[in-house]
Amino acid sequence: MPGSSADAFARATVFAPRLQALLDEYVGKEVFRLDAETVGVAGPVLTHRLLDARAATEVERPTFKPLHGRSVPRTDASKLMQAIGRDVREALKRPVSAELDLSGPWPHVGHVYLRDLLLAGDPLRLRLLMDRVLELTPKLTWAVIAAGAAMSLKPQHNASALATLTAAAGSYDERRYAMGLYRRTAAPVCFTISTLVANALWLGSPFDPAASSRHIVYESLRLLPPSWNILRHASPEYPALDGRIGSHDDVLVLPLLSHRDPAL
């Protein structure tokens, strides 16, 4: 019997060996020990209670953790998020060119499009910080920042709100700090959204009108690394919630496993 057209376009998600080992061993389990000092948590009820028990410390924050040992005040983080938010809203007001070509290798094509959509008017030194090559190693990123911070920034009238905020830094050290935060703030928009769309294209193409786009978007979100784990360092609140967590245990919350639990 010939296979269906759906079978012809079936997709298989292949995880790295260590991630697959986690899935094979712990899917469906609420709490489990990963090593002598770390407890894994995948149960949704306990996950909610753990994350609600206390606010994340500065080293646990995903985007605005300390930058080269320097704390990022919440006021700075708030200003940066407001700036990138304004830039996104302004970009969405502009009409999309009828000649826009998004063909080519994804997520690179989407990444470049978003970078130019949001940051095209920014100084080259800042736009270079969006290069995907910098993902290879933090040392490379910091080398580009160190070189770019040598001279003051003079954004043009069409620069992004984020670049304008970054250019206010005066000294060399302040420019390094500001440029590091520029990348931390803008990169997730370019990297994450382009990867999300690439996931959706890979999962859904060729798109069937009868298939739920919502399911494709949900699965695309599940495949994004930022949603895979959340680390919380040892804290007295956690043993009180579950006796399997010791007073010196770090807790690794693993939505990666929760998302794949067939019971949920």
Q: Which secondary structure elements does this structure contain, and how are they paired or packed?
A:
Blueprint: H1 5-8, H2 17-26, E1 31-35, E2 38-41, H3 44-53, H4 74-93, H5 108-119, H6 124-127, H7 138-148, H8 161-167, H9 172-204, H10 213-222, E3 230-232, H11 237-241, E4 250-253, H12 255-259
Parallel strand pairs: 2-4
Antiparallel strand pairs: 1-2, 3-4
Record keyword descriptors for this entry.
disordered N terminus; 264 residues; 4 strands; 4-stranded mixed beta sheet; alpha+beta
Summarize the structure.
The protein is of the alpha+beta class. It has helices spanning 5-8, 17-26, 44-53, 74-93, 108-119, 124-127, 138-148, 161-167, 172-204, 213-222, 237-241, 255-259; strands at 31-35, 38-41, 230-232, 250-253.
Can you describe this structure?
- With 264 residues, the protein is of the alpha+beta class.
- It has 2 domains: 14-57 and 233-264, no CATH class; 63-213, no CATH class.
- It contains 12 helices and 4 strands, in the order H-H-E-E-H-H-H-H-H-H-H-H-E-H-E-H.
- The radius of gyration is 22 Å and the shape is globular.
- It starts with a helix and ends in a 5-residue tail after the last helix.
- The relative contact order is 0.17.
- The model is unreliable at 1-5 (pLDDT under 50).
